[in-house]
Amino acid sequence: MNQTYATAPTHVPGPSVPALRLLDLSMDFGPVKALSGVSLEVRRGSVHALLGENGAGKSTTVKLLSGVMRPTHGRIEVDGRAVVLRSPLQARAQGIQTAFQELTLLPDLSVFDNMLMPRPPIHVSGLIRRREQRRAIGRHFDELELGIDLDVPVREFNLAQQQKIEIARAIYHQPRILLLDEPTSALPPTDVQWLGHLIARLRRQQVTIIFISHRMEEVEAFCDDLTVLRNGRHVASRPARDFTRDEVVELIVGRSLSKVFPERKRPAQAKPVLALKAASTSVIHDASFTLNQGEILGVAALQGMGQLDLFRLCFGLVQPRAGHLELDAWPQRLLGPRDAIQRGIGFVPEDRKHGGLLLNQTGLQNAALPVLNAMTKWGILRRARELSAGARAFERLQLDRRALWTDAGAFSGGNQQKIVLAKWLMARSRILLLFDPTRGIDVGTKQEIYQLMADYAQLGGAILFYSTEIPEVIHMSHRVLTVYKGRINALIEGDDISEARVMRHVMGQADGVAEGDDD
């Protein structure tokens, strides 16, 4: 039997009593109101979507329900009883578990030790019952069909696998209320299906789930009810079937998004700026492609097919074992990111918190990192010049000016991603490597990033663009590379770019026939 960390309340609520109720909930951070009088009910055993733009109040709500923060005003009821959640342990005592988008795993510890966190079960002798727990966690992973070695440090797994471990840990402690904060933002389509089956099983077990996502197709597939927050206020709550997708999007952003993707305009000329020539690493094999000035070259692949190594190779993070990289048709050897940055290449990684930002530094300090040498004279930072350049970049990205002097960790995911992009605008990069840049970002901010990409290409910049969301790649790219088992297996252009054709190639098929598996 799985070990729980806390004992859930023993009273049995009536069938009409909501599993969770928020009453006039408010949260203030000085003059900033993250939540203002939010009230909602969540039916027992239902999957309830919580939707809104970045900064709408979703993450604040999750932190309040997880015991990470206490509300300024209002009440939280679990099974009809008012509760005060002063800490995560008290939230767990009420049967509330959370799988966070910004992972809470400790990367240097093994999967097994992370599963025991934050408070391992202790025997009466004072010792951790490791053998018993190993058997229980092993059975739990088998039930979830997770082929993951419990003894391997978490940092050895990719982001999608880490997200699944985070979800598995939350479920291991037998929640009655499960908060899933952007659980699919790092998952490929096959793992989204895995999560869908898991949610269906938990629903049958009468587990109440709050599901936060920016992906409307998943909300439609998984959720019974939905609530929309905007600017910290409750906008609407209804059964999911009562909304059309367009209605939900308008409620989220407060305006109509009549055209999500900007018009694709062909580059004036096919002038190559970056190319790989028969390049191989331990992961990719004989990869060749050319990225032209003014072009968005899309990359489509299922999780772990080698697409990340293509980007790392173009940024000097890995070295080719064979073949080479070219810039402006000249062979180059990038010994590291410093060389790439000096040659006008910028990289936006999938995990902005760990790979793109210093969270305890201001937005301006983060954005200025690649150009510090250009901002100094005789070793002294010219702060007026730094501020002027940062303000222009932030204005172009529609970032609030307070981001210039506020720590990056204080902002929502969408605004953090804008700070990452501002870094490369300040550096005047002529080539952008965008690896899943809209992960965990609301629909309004996504549209802003799409427009930025289109404008950047129109001004002569070149973009190599990967997204876990295939429709993004299809609608934003002039040409699309597909990657399967470390090989570029197709280049799709013009009217041939379609979801069906791209999906066939990313699954290792061509014209309905499976491609060879030889390496």
User: What is the beta-strand fraction?
Assistant: 15-25%
Backbone shape: globular
Task: Provide the number of structural domains.
Answer: 3
Number of strands: 24
* CATH topology description of the largest domain: Rossmann fold
Question: What kind of oligomer do you see?
Answer: single chain
- N-to-C terminal Cα separation, in Å? 44 Å
Counting helices, strands and paired strands, the structural category is alpha/beta
> Average pLDDT across residues?
86
Number of helices: 17
Please give a handful of descriptors for the protein shown.
519 residues, Rossmann fold, 3 domains, six-stranded mixed β-sheet, 17 helices, disordered N terminus
Describe this structure in words.
The protein is of the alpha/beta class and 519 residues long. The chain has 17 helices and 24 strands. Strand 19, helix 15 and strand 20 form a beta-alpha-beta unit. The two termini are 44 Å apart.
